[in-house]
Amino acid sequence: MSRNMDRRSFMRKAAAALASPLLLPAAVRGADGHVAPSNRIVVGVAGMGVMGTGNLRRALVQQDVQVVALCDVDAEHLARARRIVDQRYGNHDCAGYADLYEMLGRGDLDAVVLAMPDHWHALAAIAALRAGLDVYGEKPIAHGLREGRAICNAVTRYGRVFQTGSQMRSFPFVQQGVELVRNGRLGHVRHVEIAMNGGEPEYRSEPREQLTSAPPAQLDYDRWLGPAPWSPYRAARLHRRWRRVLDYGGGLLMDFIGHYGDIAGWSLGLDRTGPVEVSGRGQFLSGLYDAPLNYQVDLRYASGLTMRLTDGPALIRWDGERGTLFMDRTRVWSDPAWIVNEPIGANEVRVGRGRDHMRDFIDSVRSRAQPAAPAEVGHRAASLGQLGMTAMLTGRKLRWDPVREEVIGDPGANAMLGHAWRTPWLA
Amino acid sequence: MINGLIHLARTLASLLMLAAVAAPAWAAHNPNPTPPTAEETSLIQAALPERPTVAPQEPRRLLVFWRSEGFFHSVIPYANEALRRMGEKSGAFTTEITDSYDVFTPERLAGFDAILFNNSTRLVMDDTARQAVLDYVRGGGGIVGLHAATDCFYDWPEMADLMGGMFDGHPWTAKGTWAVKIDEPDHPLNAAFEGKNFAISDEIYQVKGAYSRDRLRVLLSLDMSDARNWEVDRSRINREDLDIGISWIQLYGKGRVFYCSLGHNHDVMWNPAVMRHYLDGIQWALGDLEADAVPSAQAAPAPSLSRWDFGAEPAELAVLEAQARAGDQRLAAALEQRLLGVLADDGATFAAAQFACRLLRQVGTAQSVPALAELLAEERLGHMARLALQAIPDAAAGEALVDALARLEGAPLAGVISSLGMRREAAAVDPLAELARSPEPLVARAAVEALGRIGNDQALWALTMLASQGSAPELWPDAMLACAEQLTQRGDHEGAGMIYRRLMGAEYPDVIRQGALAALARSEGAEPASILLAALSGGDPAMNQAALTAIVAGAGRPRTTRALADGLGLLAPEAQVLLLGALAERGDAIALFAAIEALAHPEPSVRIAALEAVGRLGGAPQAPLLAAALAAEPDEAKAAAEALALLRGQDVDRELARLLERAEPKPAVALLRVLEERHAIDATGAMLTATTHPSREVGTAAWRALGAVATPNVLPVLLERLQAAPDELPPLERAYVQIARRQPDPSVHVQRVLAAMPAKPDASSVALLRLGGAIGGPAAFEALNKAARGNEPALREVAIASLAEWADDSPSDALLALASVDDEACRAAALQGYLRLTASRAADRPATATLVMLDRARPLSIQPAEKRQLLGTLGQVKSVKALDQILPFLADREVSAEAGAAAFSICTKMDGESTDTLKLTLERIMTECTDADIVKRARERLNPTQPAEAI
C-alpha cells in the first residue's frame, strides 16, 4: 500500500521543522540540516539492556535529539551504552548514572527513554513525569494494572507526552491491517485469536532452581530489585530472563500483549476500553521461575466480541463475516487473498502516520500532539494481560467494568491488580 | 408452585439416594460381558512383556476374581484377557479366572499365590468367606487390586483398609488426559516408566479412608502441579491435601498388597508401560519380585515446608501454588491454614515465610491478618507481609495497618503508610496528618502522598493545614493536585478551581503550575480559553507548553474551542502557527472559520498552518480554497495538497473532480495525486477525461491515479481505447493490469482481453496479447504459449517477451523448445527470453536449480552475445558448481574475457569455501583467460601479499 503523502500531521512536522521559539527558544535548523545543540530535545536513557540499547540507537539517529545522560544499575551495561553514545557524538560528554533519581534531577532534560524491567516501569515513569519530563516507556506499560492507571493519571495530571514502546503501531503493514478491520473490509468481526510466543526456546530447558550467590561487583542489586520483593541474588533471574519471574515480569503473556493486544484493540476501536469478562488457565513454572509457560486467556467484550490469547507462534487472526485477516511479526495477509489489496478511501478511518516510533515521540515532544501509542492505549493493552494473569492466579472468571476499572463482585481479584512497593522505593 | 417444585426435588433426591443404596439397574453382575475383538486381543498380546521381570521361584497361581455387584466395568473382560495372556506370555504365573464366590474358602485359596480383584465392585461376602480371605493374606498370600477394586468393601472396613482406601469419586474422568507423577523413580515396581513422568487418558480415582503415606508406599500419584490435572470440576476434589495416589503397595501380616487405579479405559490394556507395571506389582504380590514396602512417610519423609530454602527443588511449592490458583474456597481455606502454620513456625526460613506471604496475598482472609501484622516490623519479611495485607480485602487488614502506624518507624513505617494510601483507608487520615510532619523525609513523603491518594475532605483539610503552616512545601502541592482531581470527580468544580488557580502561582514548581493549568483547561467556556491564550502568548516556556498540550487534548468542548479560535488573530505569528496546529489536532470543527481567515495571513508559516487546519477541520466547501493554493509557492502548494487529501465528506471527491476539469496543468497534476491518495472512486470519470489532456504530465498522472483507484467498471472503456490506438498507451496498459490484478478473480479480465483479439491478427492483437500476459494466470499462459508457437511473427515476439517476464519458472520448457527452432529470429528471442527468466528469478530458487536451467541453455547458446548472457548469469550463481559450466568457455576466444570475469566473480562470492577449487580456478584464469585485467586481478587475489609488478 503505497502512500504518496506523509500522513504525519502538519503540526508535528511544523513543530519539528520550525522548532517553535515558544517551546524551544531560538531553535532554527542549520543550513546543513543539523540542529544546533541548544535547540535539540535533551534526552536521558535509563535501562541499557537489549530494548534500551535499541531505543538508544533510535534516539541517537534523530538529528534534533541530544542524549546527555544514561542510567543503569549494572556498570557494565552502562559502560557499553556510553561507548555507543561517545562514538556517535565523538566526545565523552554523556553522563552516566546508577541512580535514576539523580539523573531525573539534572534539571536540563526534556524527555527520558525508559527500558527497565517491568517492576520498575511505573515507579520510573511516574518519577519522570512528576519531574516534568516526557517519557518514552517500554511495553508493557506497567507490571500491575493499577500502576498502569497511575501512569495515565500522571500523564494527564502533569500534561506530559507519553509514548508506549509498542512500536508495531508505527509499522506500515500493521497500520494497513488495522485500517482494513476498522473500515469493515472483513465485515463484522466475531472473534480475534492471538498467539504470542516470543520465541524463547530455552524457556523450557532452564533449571528449576539455582543456588544463590553474591551479586557481581558491577551490579547494584538492591537498586535493581527496587520496589520488588527482596530475594537473594540468583543470576538466572536477572538480565534477559527476569520476565520469567512474576515479581519482575509477566512471562511471555505480558511480554507481547503490548504489541498484539494493542493491535487487536486498535483495529476494533477497543484500545481505550476493555473486556467485560476474563478467564484464563495456565501452566505455571515454580521455583526459580514462576511465570506461566503455556496459557490461554479468554476475553469477552460488551459487543459480544471474543478474543483469545494463547502461547504459540506469533499470529493475530481476525475472524470476520466476509473473510479472515492474519498478521504476524512481519506481514499481513487475508483469506480470501484479495481483501488485503482493498484501498482505503479518504472518508474512511486512516491510521497511518510515521514509520519511526522514536521519531513520532520526538515530534510529539515538540508539538504536544498525541503520540502514536499514548499511555492510555498502552495501559489498556497491558490490562488484557494483567487481567488474564489475575484470572489465572485466582482461578476465577472475572467480570470487569472497563469504565471504573473494577472487577465486579470480587474484591480479592481487585486487590491482586496492584502491588505494594518495597521501601524506600515509593513513588 | 414453588413448594411443589421443592417437594419434587426432594422426592427425586431421595429416589437417587435410594438408588445408590440399592444399586441401580446398570449396577449388576454381567456374566457374559463383551470380550475384546480379535484386533484388540492382538494389541493386548503385543503390549505384554515377553518374559517375567524375575523368574518365578516356583510355579505361581493367580486367582483373577471379576464379580461386580455394583457398577459393572466394561473393561473387565479386557483385563481378564490381558492377565491370562500376561501369565502365558511371560511365564510368570498361570491364572484361574472366575466370578464365583465359591473360591473364597481356605481350601480353594490355598491353591493360589495371590488373589487379583479385577474391578470387582460392592462384593457381597459372608463372614466365612471374609475370614478366609483375611487369613489367606495374613498367612502370606498376595492381594492385587485393579481400578474399581477400591469401590468395593464399604461395609468391610478391614478389607477396605487392606486395599488402601475407599473410592471417593473420580473428578479426573475417563475422557481426560492426566499428568502422572512417579513418586519414586528408583522403586523396582516403577521400572516400567523409566523415571519419566507421563500423561495418560484414563479415569483416576480419588480415595478416602485408609489412604495415607504413613501406611502405604505410594508409587504413582497425580501431579497436582500440572495445570492439566486442574481442568476438572474442582468442587469434586475432596482431598484437601491433594494427595491423589494412583498406585501403591503395603504389607499386611505376611501378605503383600498391590493396588493400581489405572485401567478404566480399554486401551490401557495395550499400554506396554502399564502392563509391565501390572506384571511387576503382581510378581511382587506373588512373592517373586523383591521390593521395599516401608510406608512412604518413613522411607523418605517429605521435607518440611517451613525449612524450604532457595536453591532446593521446590516440588511441593508448585502444588501449593496450583492450589492457590484453583479458585475454590474450600481448598483456599485449607491452604491458608497450611501457610499460617509456616508463619507460626519459629524455625521457618525466610524463603518459606516469603513463600507463605506471597500465597496469602492470593488466599489470605481475616484469619491471616494477625500473623501478617506481626511481621510488619521485620526488615525484609515486613514488605512481604504488607504485600499480603494490602491485598486482603477484609477490613481487618486495613485496621491492622492503621494500628501498626503507632509502633513502626523508618522504612517499614513508610511502607505501611504507602499501603494505606493504596487501600485509600479513610481511617488513616488523622495519624497520616501527624506523620506528614515527621522529621524523617521518607515517612513525611509517604504520608503526604497517601493523603493525596485518599483525597477525601479530611485529607484535603490535612493538606490545607500543612500548606498554611508552611510544612512540607515540596510535597503538599502535588498531593493537593491529586485531591483536587477527586473534588472534581465529586462534582465540586468550584473548590477544585480554587485550588488550581492557587497552584498556578509563580511560587510553585513548573510541573505543578503546568498541571494546574491543564486541569483548569479541562473545563468548558470562556475562562479556560482566556487562561490558555494568555499562557500561549506569555513568555513562560513551561506555560506555553502546558497550554498547547491542554488545547490538543481538550476536544469536545466547543465553547472553549470557539473562544480560542476568536483569539487566534490577536496572537503573534509564531503563536498562531502553534494554535492553528493545536486546533487542528483538537479537531473541533467550530474552529474552522478562524483557520480560513488565517489562510490570508501575510506570514507564509501561518498560511501553511492554516492550510493544514482547514484540511483537518473542513469539507467539500473548502476544497476550492485549498485547491487555489496548489498554484502557490512549493511549500504552500505541498501543504495545500496534503490538506486536500485530508478533507472529509462524501462530496469532497466529486468537488475535486469538478475542480480537476478546469485546472491548469500544474494544479491538475497535484489534484490527480490527491485523488489517488484519497482513493477517490467518485472521481474516476474525471480521471478518465484527464487521460486525454494535451499535457503529457497530466495524462500520465491521470493514468496512474486511474490504475490505483478505479473499479473494473472502467475496463471496457480502456479496452476500446487500447483497440483504437494500440501502439501509444503503455500507461493505459499499466493501469489496466493494476486494476485487473486487484480483483478477486483477475482471470475473468484476462479472458475478456483475449476475447477482444480479432480473428485475423492486426495491430491491436499485439497490445491485447501483451496486456493479457501482463495480468497473468493460466488462461494468459495458455494464450501466450499458443502464440509463441504460432505463425504470426509479431505475436510470437510479444508472446516470447511476455513469457520471459512470467512470475514463475513455468514457461521455461516452452521457451527452451522454441530456442532450438530453425527460424533464427524466433530462436534468438526465445533463448534470450529463457536466459532472462533464469536470471531474473535466480534469487527465488536454489542455486542448483538455476544451474540445471543454465546447463540446458548452454548447448543452444551459439552467438557470442548469447554466450555472454549465459556467462553473466552463471557468474551470479552462489555455488562453486557454476565453475564446471564456466571454465570451458575460457578457451573460447570470443568470450574468454567474460568467462574469466564470471569465474573470478564466483571466486570472490564463494571465498572461504572449497579453497582448493577456487585456487585452481584462479590459476586457470591466469593461464587461459585472454583479458589482461582479469588475469591481473586473479593473480593479485591468488598472491595478495606480492605486488603484481614483482612477478
- The proportion of residues in beta strands of chain B is 5-15%
List how many beta strands of chain A DSSP finds: 15
Proportion of β residues of chain A?
Answer: 15-25%
Q: Low-confidence runs of chain A (pLDDT<50, min 5 residues)?
A: 17-33
Oligomer: heterodimer
What does this structure look like?
The complex is a heterodimer of chains A (427) and B (951). Chain A is of the alpha/beta class and 427 residues long. Chain A is built from 12 helices and 15 strands. Chain A has helices at 10-18, 50-60, 75-89, 100-104, 118-130, 145-158, 172-182, 221-225, 251-267, 357-367, 375-394, 411-415; strands at 41-46, 65-71, 95-97, 111-114, 134-137, 162-164, 189-197, 277-284, 292-300, 306-313, 315-320, 324-327, 332-335, 398-401, 406-407. Chain A has a 9-stranded mixed sheet. In chain A, strand 11 (315-320) and strand 12 form a beta hairpin. The longest helix of chain A has 20 residues, at 375-394. Chain A is globular, with a radius of gyration of 22 Å. In chain B, helix 3 links the parallel strand 1 and strand 2. Chain B is mostly helical and 951 residues long. Chain B starts with a helix and ends in a 9-residue tail after the last helix. Helix content of chain B is 56%, strand content 6%. In chain B, the strands form 2 sheets. In chain B, strands 2-1-3-4-11-10-9-6-7 form a 9-stranded mixed sheet. In chain B, strands 5-8 form a two-stranded antiparallel ribbon. In chain B, helix 30 (652-662) packs parallel to helix 32. Chains A and B meet through helix 1, helix 6, strand 8, helix 11 and helix 12 of A and helix 9, helix 11, helix 13, helix 15 and helix 17 of B.
Keywords:
heterodimer; A: 427 residues; alpha/beta; 9-stranded mixed sheet; 6-stranded parallel sheet; 12 helices; 32% helix; globular; B: 951 residues; two-stranded antiparallel ribbon; 56% helix
